Structure formats: C-alpha cells, structure tokens
Amino acid sequence: MVMSVLFSFIFPPPPSLVVSGLTVISFMILINAFLSEIRGKHLNYSKFWNVNPSGKKQIKLPSKAGMLLLYTPALFSGLSSFFVFPHQGVRCDVLRSAVILHYFKRDFEVLFIHKYSGGITLESAIPITLSYFLSATTMVYSQHLTNGVPEPPINLFYPGIVLFVVGIIGNFYHHYILSKLRGKDEKEYKIPKGGLFGLVICPHYLFEIIMFYGIAFISQTLYAFSFAIGTTFYLLGRSYSTRKWYLSKFEDFPKNVKAVIPFVF
C-alpha cells in the first residue's frame, strides 16, 4: 500500500547501487547534522564559526573564499552535465537548470550581497563542499537514469516549478534584507526586521526548504525527495540553534518569533 502510493508520484528507484547508496548515505548525514545542531555541535560557519573549539589548531578561511569553495564545485557539476548528458528531455533540463540557478545565486550572493564578520573552518568547509557537489551530481545523474522510464501517474512537474521560483526568490529577498542590517565596516549582529523576520528568525531557511521541495517535485526521483527531507531536518536544527543564539545575545529578542515555521517551530 505504502509503496503503491509512493510510486504514484516518484519514478521507481534506478537499478544503480551508487545512487541507492548515496540516497541512504546523504540522508543519514543530513539527519546526523540535524541532531548535532540540536545538541549544540555546530558546523563552523556564519555566527557559529568559532564555537565548539577542539584542542587542535584549525585552519580558518575568509568567509567569502570559504563560501565560494562551498558552492562553486556544485555549480560546475550542474553546468558540465549539459555536456556529459546533452539530450535528456524537458524534465531533466529543467531540473539541472534549477540546480545551476540555485548555486549560481549562491555564488552571486557571496560576491555581491552578503556581508561577513567571521569565517569558516576548513574542517567544516570540506564536508559541506563535498555534500553540495555530490548532491548536485547525484540529483542530475538519478534524473538521467529515468530516461525511457514511464512517467509517474501524478505529475508534480509544474507545481515544482512554482515552488522553486517562490523558494529561490524568497530566499534571495531575505538574504538581501540581512545584508542591509549592517552599515559599512560594521561587524555586529542585529535583530533582523522586514519580510517574514517578524514571524521567524530564519525565513531564508524556510524559503530554501520550499525551493528544495520544488526541485524534488520537478525531479520526482527518490533521491531528490530524500535530499529535500534531509535538508529540511538539517535546517530545522540550524534554525533552532540560531533562535537560541539570538535569545542568548539579545534581551529584547521577541519571544513570539519562531525559528523557521511561522507560529509552529
């Protein structure tokens, strides 16, 4: 019963041990990252870049260089797929275009939008870079493997495009608001205002979640859905820690502002 419902809106899992293995591994890594965030063991970037210091000396990268390192390999993975798999049909072309647009936007924000006050440790940058690169590559490859396979009975392609557009615009808009909180040469964090910041402290994460479900709907592969669900858990954990950080730093932080889901969490 469960499987019949599942296969009504996703393609059957491809006969690929690599894709099947990466589906499970990437999901478990994201769940582990969620649990780590909840427990206070953070990936060291943004406002958490220097927490949980270990006894060993860590290599710190400048934020701009570090963030470009995170996103650029995944961007090139998406771009190169048009040369590796040149004729794949509309669904695959839209899927990899969405992946490319997402990581291009990230690089654009790094170069022209974000303002930085900390850094990122190499110890955190390497696994994040690998995760983004492998997810982009596997997303496109698993879509390639659906060539010639009958479409799922329930078509989520067009709702997926809508979700993706809403998600990527909302994410960019709230990143832009955050960038305007600081004046020139200011380093201190402030309580953000505007957009959905009056409801949740991480609306940019909320729209990123929406965007990844848009990609999953466009793709309709098991890998895309498992990655969207895993990313949801990770961002729930990260937003929970972010709200906790704001509560500890600002006495006037409004208690009614949730972490990422308005009125709920």
Automatic annotation (TrEMBL):
PROSITE patterns, per database record: S5A_REDUCTASE
Annotated transmembrane regions: 16-35, 156-173, 194-216, 222-240
Localization in the cell: Membrane
Keywords, in A-Z order: Membrane, Transmembrane, Transmembrane helix
Any single biological process term in GO: lipid metabolic process
Major localisation: membrane
Pfam families noted in UniProt: Steroid_dh
Membrane topology: Multi-pass membrane protein
Span of domain 3-oxo-5-alpha-steroid 4-dehydrogenase C-terminal: 156-265
Keyword Metal-binding found: no
Gene Ontology cellular component terms for the protein in this record: membrane
Record-level Gene Ontology MF annotations: oxidoreductase activity, acting on the CH-CH group of donors
PANTHER family to which the protein is assigned, alphabetical: 3-OXO-5-ALPHA-STEROID 4-DEHYDROGENASE (PTHR10556), 3-OXO-5-ALPHA-STEROID 4-DEHYDROGENASE FAMILY PROTEIN (PTHR10556:SF35)
The family this protein is said to belong to: Belongs to the steroid 5-alpha reductase family.
Name this protein carries in UniProt: 3-oxo-5-alpha-steroid 4-dehydrogenase C-terminal domain-containing protein
Organism: Psophocarpus tetragonolobus (Winged bean)
